[in-house]
Write a structure and sequence with these properties.
about 40% helix, globular
Length: about 260
Amino acid sequence: MRLVYLDEAGTDYKAPVLAVAGVLVHGDLEWPEIDRRVCALIDKFIPEADRSEFIFHAKDIFHGSGYFDRRKPQWDHLDKRILVLNELADIIDDLHLPIVLGHYVKDKFGAGVLTAEDGPKKRGLMIHGSAAMDCLVWADKWLAEYAPSELATVVHEGGAATSALIKRAVRVLRHPGLMTKAGMSGMDQQELSLPLKRIIDTVHFADKADARPLQLADLCAFVLGRALKDMPIPSRAFRIIWKHLKWRQRFKAIAPASSERHPS
């Protein structure tokens, strides 16, 4: 059984790109090691008094905000904080975790479907839901190619305003009749590997402290989201993440509506 852990970046209305990204984790073979190694990094970088329910937030680490306030002597230089991001990325690399990604440029999304009256909130919800759907299509494709005897369930970072939409999307993408009712019958379902065949159950929403692989999904979403906006990124962490995303290059672009451009 695989677990697909997803998180998002770029939900702020000012961000030009919204990305959802995540990692596929083998529940028996890889989950315990991820949990152990994240805990080990907490022990390594965080004083004992602060370790209870500690969470690595890539955005705070990179920008020197929150717990990693750059005004603190231990976090005053970017190089110190980049080391934390690199060691989180090393977990992905050492365990060879496949990465999935869905993303959209916000001002190009929904042309001919959404209107100015729909507003940025509705647009943001639909973009987030669509990017999450793309991740599930890619995850289903990975399972079909590399673990055809396995199924997967999905864990998304908790608190997403789009939770009902994402749950509904999974239900629709698993059922040909619901896809037809949703106006998706004209899609090349064979090319897109639809309906989903290996994503089971509903999407579960969890806190990063309770599901530590979500902290790796957070890293992926943050780094890839910045790369897609051509913003400065932690280069070593990006190279690791990109290496484990490149498995998609052997397939045609299958995400339902993405026009993906890959960072070089």
